[in-house]
Structures are given as structure tokens and as C-alpha cells.
Design goal:
With 402 residues, this protein is α/β, with parallel strands linked by helices. The protein is built from 16 helices and 8 strands. The structure holds adenosine-5'-triphosphate (ATP) and magnesium ion. The site of magnesium ion (MG) has 5 residues, from helix 2.
Length: 402
């Protein structure tokens, strides 16, 4: 079939031709946006889930919705080496300048600009022109958390005076350093208590739930933690059939069943397999044979784009740790205690270094329940078993005697 028309879009944050099964999440975001608009403070939504489940796609939708409701929107994607103070300063500046850019600005905005000036001096980010005087005693303490609170309050008050509302979207929250996350949460808390029109939507790996709770105990009440998961029936089926339907192409039922079996309803995998099936198929309806013909190529593409890169920087012992996990099956979570046993070790302490390294390398993630971890990528256990074979405990080489 026509490759140019291919409606499946494996990618990062790429809007799918048909967004399946996320109505209730979109509804929650819509309610939050509407409530904030009328001054009814609402909790921030924090999306969490594995790689490729569709968190970024949802954040982008939230942004679109907010823009349609005339919110001033700014989206940030945190990356491992970012300095949050620099990133947030630039975002806050953009927000401030969009509240009002006419000559005659109101007192509250003048104040916010002054507070911002102090803030930017305090965090050492003064590489832009802003012809206002800093306000003494506001956002100039040099303590990031206090200063961020001040600037959020000043911006919130200015927005309120202008009848404007602000939406800040933050992707890949797990990369925030703990003090920065703490400061950000504290600032949002302050805004919430003062009922100011700033709303935040966040997204990250499952560990964001644990991280936020660790840095601020009240975070549990400040956020709605929203899991984003694989698609269940009938939404998994719709994710496959709807994009094709728009182009008058249908599937035989056994073909659909096979796609669900292979992809387990994970959005990224549906897009990748769908893309290959479309290119292999000659005509509508798409058959089971088309799926079987496309499967090896799709799996190869998945291995290359999704799985293999995660093995690149992993040491042999770390690989052994992952392999021990994989040998227990495709689980949603793995108990550290079980991995200890599997690896033939005595205590969690013996293997926590591997867990920590793998977490840093983005392969495993810590869950909210104490003592449990998961792979960051769906179906990773299956990939490991396919490529590494059966698991045999591998012990550190004994140190050579002097
Ligand atoms: N609900 C959905 N229905 C169909 N396809 C979807 C859905 N959600 C996401 N996708 C597709 O899945 C892929 C991954 O989406 P996205 O990049 O948003 O995932 P993610 O959770 O942000 O992943 P990561 O953690 O790696 O950033 C994209 O190709 C997207 O088009
Ligand atoms: Mg993403």
C-alpha cells in the first residue's frame, strides 16, 4: 500500500492519527483548566508511565487545550544535564512578557518584573535586557526555593490582575534534581494556597511518584498522579484499526488479534508494527499473513530504536542484574529481594550499586512501593531473554590474592 499515506507514526511525542483510550485523562485536564480559569484552584496532574506509552503526546494535547482556552502556555522538557534554574528563568521571563506587552502596564506587572529582576540576579541569569529595577527583599535571598516562591507569587498576582491564566507543562520530570523539584513543588504549593491562576501538568517515569513524595510530603495532596498505561480492549483494537479506517483500509480479526498479542497494547509498539504492516500489505483487508510477514522487520526496528541502545553503556554485572530480572518474567514490578536471591547474593546491599547505576542509565526505575523496581521500557524482559538467552548467575570475579 501507499507508503506515503502510511498513517502509523512511531516517534517521540508524535501525535498519532488516532489517540486511543485517553478520554478520561483528557477530561480531567479539561476540568482542571476550566476550574483554574474561574479561580477554583485545582490539583496539578502528574502523568507517569513507562517509555513510549504516550505521556508526551498527552502533554502536547493538554497544551493545545490550554492554548484554545487562552492560557499563556510554556512547555519544558527537562534533560539530564540541564540546569533547572536557567531553564525556569527563561520560561518565567517569556510568561511575564506575554502577560502584557503594551506601554502602560499595571502596578502588579511592574512589581512582578521587579521581582523577576531580583530573581534572575539571584540565580545568576542576567543575560537579557529588562529595563526595570530589582525589588529589594523579593526573590533575592539567594535561596532558590524561597526566591522561586516569590517569583511564582508575583507572576500569579500579575496574571490575576490582568485576568490571564498560566499553564506550565514539564516533561521528563524524573531528570529534575531533588532540590530543584522541591523548590518547584514549594512554589506551586504557594500558588495553590493563594488561589492564583497558574496550573502545572507534569510527566515522567514511574519514579516521579516516589521522588515527589520524598522531597515534599505534602506533594501527595498537591498532585493527581495519573498512570499512563498500555491500551486495553477495545482501545488497543481502535489504535490499530482507526488510523487505517480513515483511508478505507480494514483488518481481518485474526490480524488484529495477532497485533495485540505482539504489542501487548503498548502505543509505541502498535505504531511501529502498524507502520511495517502497512508497508508490507498489498491490499485491504490486512491479513494475518501480512502481520506475520511484517513482524520480523518491526521487531528489528524496535530492537534498534528502543531496546539495544539501552544495553550500550551497561557493564557485564549490570547486564547480569537485568538478566536476573528478565528471567523472572515480564513483570510490572520486581522485588529487590527476589533479584538478590536470583543472583545468588546475600543482601540488597550487595546489588544496590547495580540498581543505582542502571537507574542512572535509564534502564530501571524505582517504584513508589519500597523495595520494588521496574524496567523503564515495556517488554524489555522479553527482549533480554531473546538476546541474552537463559539466565545463569554471574558472580564478581574473586579478587586476586596478593
Ligand atoms: N493513545 C495513543 N494511541 C495511539 N498511539 C499513541 C497513543 N499515545 C501515544 N501513541 C504513540 O506512541 C508513541 C510514543 O508516544 P510518546 O512519545 O508520547 O510516549 P512517552 O510516554 O512520552 O515516551 P517517553 O517516556 O519515551 O518519552 C508515539 O509514536 C505516539 O504517536
Ligand atoms: Mg515522552
Amino acid at each position: 500500500m501507499d507508503e506515503i499515506q502510511n498513517p502509523y507514526k512511531p516517534g517521540a511525542g508524535t501525535q498519532p492519527s488516532y489517540l486511543a483510550g485517553r478520554e478520561s485523562i483528557l477530561h480531567k485536564a479539561n476540568v482542571s483548566l476550566e476550574r483554574t480559569k474561574i479561580g477554583n484552584y485545582d490539583r496539578a496532574i502528574m502523568l507517569y508511565g513507562l517509555r513510549g506509552v504516550g505521556k508526551t503526546v498527552l502533554l502536547n494535547r493538554f497544551k493545545q487545550m490550554a492554548e484554545q482556552k487562552n492560557y499563556i502556555c510554556e512547555k519544558i522538557e527537562i534533560s539530564e544535564n540541564d540546569k533547572f534554574q536557567v531553564v525556569i528563568t527563561s520560561v518565567l521571563r517569556k510568561i511575564l512578557l506575554s502577560i502584557d506587552n503594551t506601554e502602560k502596564i499595571k502596578e502588579t506587572l511592574k512589581k512582578a518584573l521587579g521581582v523577576f529582576k531580583s530573581f534572575s540576579v539571584s540565580v545568576g541569569e542576567v543575560n537579557f535586557k529588562l529595563d526595570v529595577k530589582p525589588i529589594v527583599g523579593q526573590a533575592d535571598s539567594g535561596r532558590f526555593e524561597d526566591d522561586l516562591k516569590d517569583i511564582f507569587l508575583a507572576i500569579g498576582e500579575a496574571a490575576k490582575a490582568y485576568n490571564k491564566y498560566i499553564c506550565i507543562l514539564v516533561d521528563e520530570i524524573q531528570y529534575l534534581k531533588k532540590p530543584d523539584l522541591g523548590a518547584f513543588i514549594a512554589a506551586l504549593h504557594q500558588v495553590a494556597q493563594s488561589n492564583l491562576p497558574i496550573i502545572m501538568f507534569g510527566a515522567g517515569l514511574p519514579s516521579v511518584q516516589k521522588m515527589t513524595g520524598d522531597v515534599k510530603t505534602y506533594a501527595e495532596r498537591l498532585f493527581v498522579f495519573q498512570p499512563v498505561e498500555n491500551l486495553k480492549y477495545p482501545e488497543n483494537e481502535k489504535a490499530i484499526t482507526e488510523p487505517a479506517k480513515k483511508l478505507n483500509v480494514t483488518y481481518n480479526q485474526d490480524a488484529i488479534d495477532k497485533i495485540i498479542e505482539i504489542t501487548k497494547g503498548y502505543p509505541y509498539f502498535i505504531q511501529e508494527l502498524g507502520r511495517h504492516i502497512w508497508d508490507v500489505a498489498k491490499e485491504s483487508p490486512i491479513t494475518l499473513q501480512d502481520v506475520l510477514d511484517a513482524e520480523p522487520k518491526a521487531m528489528e526496528a524496535l530492537d534498534e530504536s528502543f531496546f539495544k541502545s539501552r544495553l550500550d553503556k551497561v557493564t557485564d554485572m549490570e547486564k547480569s542484574f537485568m538478566h536476573a530480572m528478565a528471567s523472572m518474567g515480564d513483570n510490572e514490578k520486581y522485588a529487590m529481594a527476589d533479584i538478590v536471591k536470583k543472583m545468588g547474593r546475600k543482601s540488597t546491599n550487595d546489588i544496590s550499586i547495580f540498581r543505582d547505576n542502571l537507574k542512572r542509565k535509564g534502564v530501571v526505575d524505582q517504584m513508589k512501593i519500597h523495595g520494588y523496581i521496574c524496567f523503564t521500557v515495556p517488554l524489555f524482559a522479553d527482549f533480554l531473554r531473546r538476546t541474552l538467552g537463559d539466565y545463569k548467575p554471574k558472580l564478581n570475579k574473586p579478587k586476586a590474592k596478593k
